[in-house]
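Minutes, structural biology subgroup

Action item carried over from last meeting: produce the structure token record for Calcium-transporting ATPase (Sphenostylis stenocarpa). EB confirmed the sequence was re-checked against the source entry. Recorded below for completeness.
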Amino acid sequence: MSSFLNGASPRQQMEESDIEAGPSTRRSADLDDGDFSDPFDIARTKNASIERLRRWRQAALVLNASRRFRYTLDLKKEEEKKQILRKIRAHAQAIRAAYLFKAAGGGPGSEPIKPPPPPSAGEFPIGQDQLASISREHDTAALQQNGGVVGLSNLLKTNLEKGIHGDDVDLLMRRNIFGSNDYPRKKGRSFLMFMWDACKDLTLVILMVAAAASLALGIKSEGIKQGWYDGGSIAFAVILVIVVTAISDYKQSLQFRELNEEKRNIHLEFLFEFVHEKVIRGGRRVEISIYDIVVGDVIPLNIGNQVPADGILITGHSLAIDESSMTGESKIVHKDSKDPFLMSGCKVADGSGTMLVTGVGINTEWGLLMASIAEDTGEETPLQVRLNGVATFIGIVGLAVAVVVLLVLLIRYFTGHTENPQGEAQFKAGTTKVGDAIDGAIKIVTVAVTIVVVAVPEGLPLAVTLTLAYSMRKMMEDKALVRRLSACETMGSATTICSDKTGTLTMNLMTVVEAYAGGKKIDPPHKLENTMLRSLLIEAVAQNTNGSVYAPEGVNDVEVSGSPTEKAILQWGIQLGMDFTAARSKSSIIHVFPFNSEKKRGGVALQMADSNIHVHWKGAAEIVLACCTGYIDGNDQLVGMDEEKMAFFKKAIEDMAADSLRCVAIAYRPYEKEKVPTNEELLAHWSLPEDDLILLAIVGLKDPCRPGVKDAVLLCQKAGVKVKMVTGDNVKTAKAIAVECGILGSYADATEPNIIEGKTFRGLSDAQRDEIADRISVMGRSSPNDKLLLVQSLRRKGHVVAVTGDGTNDAPALHEADIGLAMGIQGTEVAKESSDIIILDDNFASVVKVVRWGRSVYANIQKFIQFQLTVNVAALVINVVAAVSSGDVPLNAVQLLWVNLIMDTLGALALATEPPTDHLMDRSPVGRRSEILFFMILIGIDKLFACFFREPLITNIMWRNLLIQAMYQVSVLLVLNFRGRSILGLSRDNNQHAIKVKNTLIFNAFVLCQIFNEFNARKPDEYNIFKGVTRNYLFMGIIGLTVVLQIVIIEFLGKFTKTVRLNWKQWLICVIIGLISWPLAVIGKLIPVPTTPINNVFSKCGPSRKREPEESQ
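Output recorded by EB:
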């Protein structure tokens, strides 16, 4: 894992250097820009500029900015992080410049010799300050004074080959003296801070002021015993809203804090049986948490690794480090004995080596940077941005309605048309007291402001946060670590998954099951009698590897570590009779060419005890075989490679590939010692000879398909998601695995362009690639650049693409894809840093679970939108019609605040945490280009408020459901409002009491309608709305709590809410009114809806919208 998961990601540098552009002139980034004229249409926040993100914030109608934007990117803090990063980079650049200046001046010898530093008084002869001075300042002179890396290792009591002892006492002592590989994190916000944020809501502030004024006037006119109820009830309701909101937000904050801790502490060794090479302790390579690294550790470095701490290079082979994360420059720096300093946080771009740790945690530049910017600045997702657009529109409509209600009520009140329960005008010019007039006006303002509170759905964008936090936690249980929030929702829209083969579709547990050596097939594969051939093979297997074999003393079993391919070949070597340590001691490594995914092979040059030079190569069988001009036969004789023998080996490779085996060839050649560069710098850039090779062996490695992968692929296909295999393996191997996994239906489907070779696809033009991209199911012998070209073509065709990757060179494709999925076990640090989600078990079935959760996120938000819009429409229409017609509103301020709690906070909690169902995988993916125009088109203000959505956020089914429910609620409650007294048999009752009973029943029926409608919202397109409801304890708990609180409000808090107690018949009427929404929902679902999105119907009537040039990313 990355040493600091929450740090400044190399992904940012990748964005700045535009590495994903590739050779294509037609980039797919233009698909992400959306409609530039609409600030809320940002398809991918992944690449959006700060200016673009600032535009939608400025366009949003917000009552409480601190709450609304809490879980979005904090632009101010982001800028502060960049400033800190610039300062630290400047320091790193200054150190680098000083080092180069010294080197140009003749090196350490040109400087006066400094006296050695005083010895430390602790357990070690050297102290932390001295180490920090050497490593952070790149002080070559001080390093030499301490005896170089060998002398430094002695001072740190470290063996450069075996590492530290690593027992608990040793580790504790090193942490106490030199610190731990960690950095302090800022404390989370307290509950009181969330309370304060909730108090900043403009409407709640206005209501508190109104409550205070009403309280003062009431006490003055009616006395303290009776006069405090009006103002006190509003104040109490506002305080309740603030407290419940703060509790909800605080819990969300705790959830995210826990998720960040889980992400930070995630440790693959404890979760899975696979072991990674990380640290050498006691002579063995062990996997430890990045945070357990201590000063003195010896760490192997390979391509794609992140340097986990500051250190000094011990040995290196073509080691190249990308220091852009620290210096800001994309230049690759080659490390050798002249420049041995390694900085924490940098990436291994090429080569391999080992390092001695000299600084950890806060004692490194990277640690200082992480401590400065450790606070999470947040991140917004496209859905959050769009929902802010929805909330803005609804808020504008609600504000307009509130203004209309305010004007109508004020005009009616001051013109004497508003009557009290006795039928008398409430305001009489020249007669009514000033205090009474002000009190009446305050009540009207309070109702209008409360309508705004209900109408502006502050909780709508926050519902995304709730469901994302819930989904992220559950996805962790399903072996998926989410690095970017937006990936959760985007995954639900995926139309194509480009998957690796090895380790994702297969188990990545390789064994050598076939071998060809001595010019023939050997069976069993380790039964080799040729003495010289066996000796050369053991030499090749032991030296041309980045794996290792550890043999504990007194134990027969050995521990083999490395990649699955390396482990399989090392195990085969052991079966041949290899003693790993002895074999490596017989020769010394001169130069290494690390395995390269472009060349598909890796090599090593060795100097033997007799000073002869052997060059060994290992890699893709057909590629290495093509470089061979001879082979060693069964009599240990060198024989020239004729056409017949070449055809024999090619046929062997094809047969093994057809059996879904990975084919690896091992070859070597002797080389003239005189041609080997002696200069260290020339040697570092020496290209190993790869012609005239002598074939030693071809082995076939079996990697079985994962159990259940075929079912997972079929589930994807059923869900409308196309699975494509992109692998570096032989095309025939890929074809066999694809048929076995169900990606190809049969071998008859294995024709171009269904199955294609990487170089063929690479050679096509952009237009030709776009034409066949949809039809490709398997790409074999592909390079990482081929994967990038395929992703770009698919995105240009309108697909939402998810890509799996594990190698360093996969980073551009992972970054370019809509969702980058890195492998947690085999993935390099560079791949993980470039990804959106890390699949912890490398299993394709886990990728399918991520798709399921992604669809669940989208579905849950749609459920909440349907529920909330129903409440919005009903509440607004009821109050507007009542206000205009009678000058009074049936739902007062306190009641509306309670409805707001049900609708916003409690509704979001209930509906945003629904677990995914199998039904979600029966739908087609949403995709990229489906757009729906929000309902503001219906009222003819397209250009002003139109909000295009690439995905159908509000589907035709949702429109049908919410309109049916809203019309039913409005109709029934308005009938009760105007004819309630006669219908309820209250004509003979006291006028004032009758009005209170009627309004109480309307309020109670309205709340119960929402409670019953919450069940309907759970299943917008299914008849059985109760399926799985008993397993959702949070939903049932919230429903139960709402019912209990509603009973308490009606029966016991009448003075506060202006309600009266209802008898059992009236309660039964309310329940029946709410209950009817269930059969009504079933009847509504029988009504067919058009498949054409509603925007296609109305957009023809509106003006055309031109896309403006895309924003520079």
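Discussion: The radius of gyration is 35 Å.
Next step: EB to file the record with the rest of the batch.
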